[in-house]
Amino acid sequence: MSITIDLTGRVVLVTGGSQGIGAGIAQRFVDAGATVITCARRPVAEPAPGTEHRTCDVRDPDDVTALVEGVVRDHGRLDVAVNNAGGAPYAMAADASDRFHEKIIGLNLMGPLAIARAAYAVMRTQPDGGSIVNVSSISASRPSPGTASYGAAKAGINSLTTSLAQEWGPHVRVNTIDVGLCRTENTADHYGGDEQVRRIERTIPLGRMARPTEIGDVAVFLASPMASYVSGAHVACHGGGEPPIFHFADQITTHPFAPDTSTEGAPS
């Protein structure tokens, strides 16, 4: 007998759901029959099939309140909230401004907390409660040089997940997906081209980066009745993880983030 997940009649909000990993997550909820609302800071020319799109800056609590109230007003309920919006440009911690770090932490930690709180206010009044799925990163559990604030924020998300699961049960389940490298429309640009991406993929135990819909499969499971006794969990979706750096020690000539101590061009 086959097992399927049917979320017909369920209302799902996916932040940052119009592109990248968020689009893959939204697609899988559409495939499961749910009513899917995506949001981002900017409008989209045309929402993905089966979804509707709304604008919201998740860092703005008033925006978040208006978003969730609008979803409930139009659809009568909110069953699942997926905190996917996030990310960070590359910047060494000492070089970036205080404002930069504040914005990164706001987007990746405070925004998800605002969405979760607004969703909980609705879900706790529903007879069958609801589910919150946070999209975290393997950066939460290992050093994240060049994106230090992002890694710290994701570590905060993982801690937040376990705390909210205890505070909000039994009405609302809260879980996290720890995402590894994933191929999106921007992957080649981010890593320096297709050949560099292929070299990176050779270091992943499963031999490739994830597809966005594979992250979506995990999100749908965590939001479904099949995960009815799963709360406070961190589910790894990283293809087996990153191999220890000592395996590549013979290929490394210097610490990759060591400061430049060259005296070339210095005054005598």
Automatic annotation (TrEMBL):
<protein>
    <submittedName>
        <fullName>NAD(P)-dependent dehydrogenase (Short-subunit alcohol dehydrogenase family)</fullName>
    </submittedName>
</protein>
<dbReference type="InterPro" id="IPR002347">
    <property type="entry name" value="SDR_fam"/>
</dbReference>
<dbReference type="InterPro" id="IPR036291">
    <property type="entry name" value="NAD(P)-bd_dom_sf"/>
</dbReference>
<comment type="similarity">
    <text>Belongs to the short-chain dehydrogenases/reductases (SDR) family.</text>
</comment>
<dbReference type="InterPro" id="IPR020904">
    <property type="entry name" value="Sc_DH/Rdtase_CS"/>
</dbReference>
<keyword id="KW-0560">Oxidoreductase</keyword>
<dbReference type="Pfam" id="PF13561">
    <property type="entry name" value="adh_short_C2"/>
</dbReference>
